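Q: A reviewer asked whether we had any structural model of the full assembly, not just the individual parts. We don't, so I'm hoping you can provide one. Inputs are below.
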Amino acid sequence: MTTMMATSAAGKKTSRFRIDLRSWLFWLIMAVWSLPLIWLISMSFRDNADILSKFEVIPTEISLNGYTQFFEDSSWIGSYMNSITYTLMNTVLSLIVALPAAYAFSRFTFSGDKHLFFWLLTNRMAPAAVFLLPFFQLYQAVDLFDTPLGVALAHMLFNVPLAVWILEGFMSGVPKQLDEIAEIDGYKFGRFFLTIFIPMIRSGIGVTAFFLFMFSWVELLIARTITATAAKPIAAQMTRTISASGIDWSLLSAAGVMTIIPGVIVIWFVRNYIAKGFALGRV
Amino acid sequence: MDGKKKNNRAWFLVLPVVFVVAFTAIIPLMAVANYSLQDIQGASNRLFVGLDFFKRVATDPNIQDAFTRNLTLSAQILLIQIPLGIFLARLMPRSGWKASAALVVVAIPLIIPWNVVGTTWRIFTRSDIGLGGVLVNQFFDYNLSEDTTDAWATILVMDTWHWTPLVTLLVYAGLRSIPQAYYQAAAIDGASRMAVFRFVELPKLRRVLMIAILLRFMDSFMMYTEPFVVTGGGPGSSTQTLSILLTTIAIGQFDLGVAGAFSLMYFLFIQIFSFIFFTVLTLDERPGATKVTPKEKKAAKLAKEPKQVRSKLEKVQK
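A: Here is a predicted structure for the entire assembly that you could use as a starting point for your response.
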């Protein structure tokens, strides 16, 4: 389904000029689209005095002040590592619980399956603001407050339903005959699932992992509420750049650029499956 | 969804998910229900007040305003982002390295932490040091911290920048799944670009567009971080979303009863909405429930065309 498609037949009929025009228009729009980000990157290479004293599109004096501050201050680099830690924990945990469930939904009908699936879906749709207070109390009660594991668990609220949803879509694309043949060949379910089925859908798992990573990485409200200092996420750290001397634009921009890098790296690995993944494996 | 075996032992495979979601969703929601029905003044001083807090939420002018405001915002977001997303997806290159590069470029706004999206736009729209703010200021008097229209427009543009890529990627995935034969048939019929879109692409995009509308509505209806960072809900309360207001009541004022009742009503509204959507979305998966619209009939007819054309071509060659 995701095989590369040649230029559409309709496209071949039109003149070469027309195709180029469409392509040029697309890249032009993308250039405008990237202006805010280019601005952020440009700001991150200037120091505060320079930013506030003059307006310039291309920085004349390159300064690495923002980045040096970011890497030398343990509260910045520490919170950055915190974010990476709970995001990775969340990705792994969500996949472990979601894989068998997605298999069940894609292969069997069972009492209440539709209701359960819908109920899972509604948790993806739950406003994070609703959960703030109870999370705050619950995670304190079970000693998970201000720990990476606590944030990872809290993010499973919306990530597990998402993982089940995407994985189910990808698994439904694998013919059921595969399972039957394996059963005839004498495979026990566990061995079949781990050694045959999971490798079959590895691209689907990769895409799911990307989405889990992404949604945990971009979330601020819950992560900020159930942490204080020890597991503080980078996003929360960034809301605290306002001091007596105003906002530290240079440091803030540098930190912003740093938070975009992990996403760009993972996006590159799943680029050819990403569109299908966003459609929840269901195109 | 046919051809699936009935097997209640499948519940064992689902159990881990049920446990996790019970811990992360059911227990907290029970606590919320608990707050909403009692006036808690201390550990031992609780008073059951029934639906009083719900009545207060339903009649609170601030909450009513925020509800209308958020609904307006979501409607505007859908009206802008769905057509724009489709437009961009149709422009995207579909093969080769350009397609990969386009996918990565389009997807970048989606992987930026939401507060960084806010930060980026706050810097970008500053009328003294931000590129966007300075540019707009050449034509209009632009000040997002004082003018309510400017603040509203900024939130709208920022959200469009942030989330239209989601619509684009969904539509792109839908477009790529359309068999080549459909396009060939349309080309032979001499269909215009608009006709191809209307009768070949749009019916095939129904499913992904439903997902896009559902996700965009939900996410915009619970938007918090981006407007919070850029405008803080202001000036006044002109850009205060439901989530910003709820967070202020719950964490800022620590008004547990009102926050609890508010949360439940908010949650219920979204539940009902997603139930309707989910039902419509899975309608065509149920056997016997499929209705073929005239549009789809036409598309199916177009799809059959190539065979006839091929046989005609063969005759000509002979």
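A: Points you may want to mention in the reply: Chain A touches chain B through 101 residues (CB under 8 Å). Residues 1-14 of chain A have pLDDT under 50 and may be disordered.
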